[in-house]
Write a structure and sequence with these properties.
The protein has 86 residues and is mainly alpha-helical. The protein is built from four helices and no strands. Helix 2 (24-39) packs antiparallel against helix 4.
Length: 86
């Protein structure tokens, strides 16, 4: 578990070194995986659909409901590695 946590923390630093902006889908995926791994399930009541960005983030996060934190950490690590071309 400790190695996974360390790799997750490293991926959080590595993502800041990307030389090009990821697609919106990749950004939503990273956001949702991070939130599920660190905060658990999204709140049942989300933001207004008229707040497009916040609504999209909440929707992406909600799709990961009941996913295990360790699984989300690993997916986040893998996604960052993919974006870095590793």
């Amino acid at each position: 578990m400790e190695n996974l946590t360390q790799a997750f923390e490293q991926a959080q630093q590595d993502v800041k070194t990307l030389t090009s902006r990821p697609s919106n889908d990749d950004l939503l995926s990273l956001y949702a995986l991070f939130k599920q791994a660190t905060a658990g399930n999204a709140p049942a009541k989300g933001p207004s659909p008229f707040n497009f960005s916040a609504f999209a983030k909440h929707q992406a996060w909600s799709q990961l409901a009941d996913s295990e934190a360790d699984n989300c950490m690993q997916q986040y690590i893998d996604k960052v590695a993919q974006l870095l071309g590793r």
